[in-house]
Amino acid sequence: MKSKIDEARETINAVDKEMISLFLKRMAAAQMVAEYKIENGLPVLDSSREDVLRQNNLDELSNKVLEKYYNVFFDGVLKASKMYQEDLLNSKKGNK
């Protein structure tokens, strides 16, 4: 019989695997956004878009007790996305 902690860890492992898949999809979309921004001379940072994303996601969050923790999580997602876009932007500038 599995202990509660073993069950919890199995769930965490399964969720982490799903998150990797979703991360890859999100970063592929971020690459498409970066390519559009490069082609159109737009900056990486779009604060209004971030605000809309954050609010839409918080509206979907059923457990409002977790809101501050979701914000920490989402800040990391946005940071990774912007870093990737910056790297893509810089590599395109370097190739010109």
Structure explained in plain terms:
By secondary structure, the protein is mainly α. It has a single domain (about 5-95), classed as Chorismate Mutase Domain, subunit A (Up-down Bundle), CATH 1.20.59.10. The chain is about 80% helix and about 0% strand. It has helices at about 5-40, 45-60, 65-95. Helix 1 (about 5-40) crosses helix 3.
Beta strand count: 0
Radius of gyration, in Å, reads 17 Å
Our measurement of the CA-to-CA distance between the termini, rounded to an integer number of angstroms, reads 61 Å
Low-confidence stretches: none
Biggest beta sheet summary? none
What is the CATH homology-level superfamily? Chorismate mutase
Descriptive labels:
single chain; 96 residues; mainly alpha; Chorismate Mutase Domain, subunit A; elongated
Record the SSE blueprint.
Elements: H1 4-40, H2 47-60, H3 67-94
Short description:
The chain is mainly α.
